[in-house]
Amino acid sequence: MLNKLLLSIRVPRRLLGGINRYLHEIPLSKDRYGIKRAPFSSITDKDIQHFQNILPVQNQILLGPEETTGYNRDYFRYVRGLGTIVLKPRTTNEVSAILGHCNKRRLAVSIFGGNTGVCGGSIPVFDEIIVSMELMNRIEAIDEYSGILVCQSGCVLEQLEEQLSAKRMIMPLDLGSKGSCQLGGNLATNAGGIRLMRYGNLHGSVLGLEAVIADGTVIDLMSNFKKDNTGYHLKRMFIGSEGTLGVITRVAIACPTATTTQNVLFLGMESYEAVLRTFLESKIRLGEILTSCELIDRVSLEVTVEYLKHAAPIGNFPFYMLLETTGNKKEHDDEKVREFLEFAIGRGIVADGVLACEPSKVEKLWQLRERIPAATYSNNFCLTYDLSLPLERFYDIVPAMRERVGHLVKVVCGFGHIGDSNIHLNIAGDVLTNEVQQLVDPFVYEFSRKLNGSVSAEHGIGLLKPKYLSYSKSAEAIALMKQLKVMMDPKAILNPYKVLV
Amino acid sequence: MLNKLLLSIRVPRRLLGGINRYLHEIPLSKDRYGIKRAPFSSITDKDIQHFQNILPVQNQILLGPEETTGYNRDYFRYVRGLGTIVLKPRTTNEVSAILGHCNKRRLAVSIFGGNTGVCGGSIPVFDEIIVSMELMNRIEAIDEYSGILVCQSGCVLEQLEEQLSAKRMIMPLDLGSKGSCQLGGNLATNAGGIRLMRYGNLHGSVLGLEAVIADGTVIDLMSNFKKDNTGYHLKRMFIGSEGTLGVITRVAIACPTATTTQNVLFLGMESYEAVLRTFLESKIRLGEILTSCELIDRVSLEVTVEYLKHAAPIGNFPFYMLLETTGNKKEHDDEKVREFLEFAIGRGIVADGVLACEPSKVEKLWQLRERIPAATYSNNFCLTYDLSLPLERFYDIVPAMRERVGHLVKVVCGFGHIGDSNIHLNIAGDVLTNEVQQLVDPFVYEFSRKLNGSVSAEHGIGLLKPKYLSYSKSAEAIALMKQLKVMMDPKAILNPYKVLV
């Protein structure tokens, strides 16, 4: 119910400004999203005094509805929290002192990063104490020799990217939300993004981290080394655990050397078979310079072209692909790209295409992929799904969904990171009826389960998807996750109601 | 004591053939390596009958000193076990049934892979039941589109590489021991190797695994997707846990597209500063085609040239580097390599060098790096250390050690994966005296701790290094590891006496 309700919150959004102040007046005894408040303590004046001792600098504590509103709603307005206090630690020791007190008093805690998550993982459900990491934004070291960045977890991704560029390095991940998202949140959700195909996932690039567990103990797992096999790899537990096992406070991450060339190809194909063939040939022929490989279906392009008021770059095809190469020597890259295109067009795999290497033209082509979500969200409602599916059946979910609800909605489109087997399915229109809801969900999850897919490729579970976890994970695995949670956080104070229920 | 004793076991090695049968007669009540046998049950005829029911096929059970000898000694002859029974399951269900029974009866278990570990992690200490994974060697799927291999954990690395080549794919890791080592053992020890710099570590490339935990429960964490954020990333716990948390039975791993070109540069430098500079410039100028970057010091080359009876490829320098590039277009790679060399020699960073691209010449240059361990092991004793150290102080351990023991031994040399900040320090000679031992150890570990290094970069902890764990991990982290062990394996039957003590 929760997911259906919240993913269709477009109309109420206009009202949200008006209900800010009332949210704080919702009684905590009332169920929210069908969830009862767990028996946590409520914050007292004595607790606030204690926090004032821990956090002595002005503006480290926010109190009251006006000041805390921004921390009680997510960017997409899917969820609203009832938190009444925001704490902003600057150091690991301050985080440790906060959690130590909360654990002793059994006060629930919600961890707030850049607020760009899409599953409600960083917003309180009831009156959890909000711990915002925004002041923990110190860069400790950038080493161009080893290619390693060490920083606090509240650093914003784009600012890290800027600092790295002076040393000819880049972050191993790039996200649409880079202007706001924080590295700690990226780790907590194991964020993916458009560079993953080239530079791998965060489990590969994160070399070390420091985290504070529920009882306030600081677990120092910092390491500046690509190789460190001394005991269990505990840092992995925190990556992707969405703040429910500990608060990540510092990070050491391996950063690739910057590239200096860029080519973007926008290609049209007549069939999904041709899409797959193009992907395979691009891996073989573009090899080490292939950075991104994205799929866009005809409907996705149509709604985005209309939304952006751009002309389509090529004629009409059922499928389009956006390929990006980056490298270090322009003539070499250009030649590889040209030969790939000659091959793919010559063999009839690619029907038509354009190529860009100037930044403004590259940007314009990328917009046709990156703005698909915005274009579909501009409808009154938009249901969005983030699935990993086997490539041979990757696109089947889209025609299957069109057959079910195509006559009842305006848009059913599929797009995404085909290079990572990750498809986004968006269903948008004017009015989200019960009929549509019931035709879509749980069909999407069942479809994914039949193919052993993942019901959350890169968005995580958060508040919105715990009930779908069993579609991707076995009962034994979920039982072990719950054991781990109890071991790490026996009073369950960290990000309650999230991930596991 | 253990480490000192075992790392210098060269002389007794000659006697080992003769003592095979006597090992089984060593009373279990006797301490081994200073370790007391934990109060596990002893195996009975009834247990053997039970295993015969679980494993019905001939040769799935080995009994007695003759048949089990090979499973009681490691390749390097550092350790000897007293196991009397070897079980060879073919399926996950058989592993589950074995562990279920052992857990119920409190019988200890030792997991045996390709027997190429260097820390004694896969050899029993007392009479642990040996579970050998060699029959679990089925390849389930190789998908060239997604680039994913799915197989049982007992597959041998080199055989996987051969099967992949038909589909223009390669394994993401390459090790000197690839002819024997098994993928499950690679995961259990989080093996590194010479491709890590290019293709990342196993945490990045392993997409899914299946493991059986101590009570026999099968934890299905298989996933064929680069992106899957559904709950805690439990599979990470098993990678690098050296068989102490569960038995890995199946693996899904992302495999890179094969390259078609290869260049190897063997370079000489006058100073360590020039080494660092060469590394940085190679990352910038060779960029995406740089696959390996190895350091060899003068002594390492001298002993290896003598051992191989080869001529040195270039004149005498204090430092040498071996760089490898692999790519997809020979002209492009050759031009990049040539320009890099022109720059590095022109600026006086590199003093001299040779370049090879023919397989036989490439092989000959690689031998100068890969056979350093064999060359140093050919002495009567050889102490070997595997450290990750910060690049700016990476080599300092070698002159420091030469000053301490250079006059007492034949060889003190440093070499290794400078691209991964991983140095190997070997100290070899005729007689390992107490004086040398005391000058070397714990100095090496203290040196590493001062630099926040890792005392085991890629070899793991196993039986030989638990007492050194605290040189790289905090008390809080080790306490959490122990909690995890108790949670996963409350009767401590899996690979006892290893990793944590």
Observed structural traits:
homodimer, about 500 residues, alpha+beta, Uridine Diphospho-n-acetylenolpyruvylglucosamine Reductase, domain 3, Alpha-Beta Plaits, seven-stranded antiparallel beta sheet, 20 helices, disordered N terminus
- Within the largest sheet of chain A, what's the order of strands? 13-10-12-11-15-16-14
- Name of the top-level CATH class of the largest domain in chain A: Alpha Beta
Q: How would a textbook summarize the main sheet of chain A?
A: 7 strands, antiparallel
Give the helix level of chain A as a range of percent.
25-40%
Q: Quick one: CATH superfamily of the largest domain in chain A?
A: Uridine Diphospho-n-acetylenolpyruvylglucosamine Reductase, domain 2
Going by CATH, the architecture of the largest domain in chain A would be: 2-Layer Sandwich
Helix- and strand-based class of chain A? alpha+beta
Oligomer class: homodimer
Whole-number mean pLDDT of chain A: 93
Number of strands of chain A: 16
Give me the CATH fold name of the largest domain in chain A: Uridine Diphospho-n-acetylenolpyruvylglucosamine Reductase, domain 2
The radius of gyration computed from the alpha-carbon positions of chain A, rounded to a whole number of angstroms, is 23 Å
Share of residues in strands of chain A: 15-25%
So what's the overall shape of chain A? globular
| Largest two-chain interface | A-B, 92 and 92 residues
In whole angstroms, how far apart are the ends of chain A?
15 Å
